[in-house]
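Project standup — Tuesday

K.O.: blocked on the structure for the chain from last sprint. Re-posting the sequence here as requested.
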Amino acid sequence: MPVKATLKYHVPGLGELKSDLYENSSKAYNLLKENGHIDRLKSIDQLGVIRNVYEGAHHSRWEYVMLQLGVLHRLNTTDFDLGFKPSKGTGLSSNVSIGNNKPTYFEIIQMWILLLNMGHLPGTFSSEKALIKCIKEDSKLQKNCLR
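H.V.: unblocked you, prediction finished:
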């Protein structure tokens, strides 16, 4: 499976995180990038109100995405350059078919990581919890959300 793109991102305390993207996950990343979603993730405060409690604690949603992609990268059976042994038995190199497209499980997990982090509001879970509470308490909002 040829690498189509390599993402690198430095996180203080962890160092450089790296993830090779393949054909399908690279397409997903490019679509998100072209539409401004990657830049938006870089500005969303992942820690929400925790940042108010722990001075200096700040991580963007993009850093969280890169952490997930970086951990997955280290599970890749072809990642010998970091000194890791092949992760036999994970099933990440197996193939599945979706129509005529045949992404590997590895690519599917990469796409999940990218896509499942897109819908967060600034402040992430605390903001989303407050929004849900407002919707539950306001019948007009409930009707508008259920349309």
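K.O.: great, moving the ticket to review. Helices lie at 23-34, 37-43, 50-53, 61-75, 105-116, 124-137, 139-145. The longest strand covers residues 5-11.
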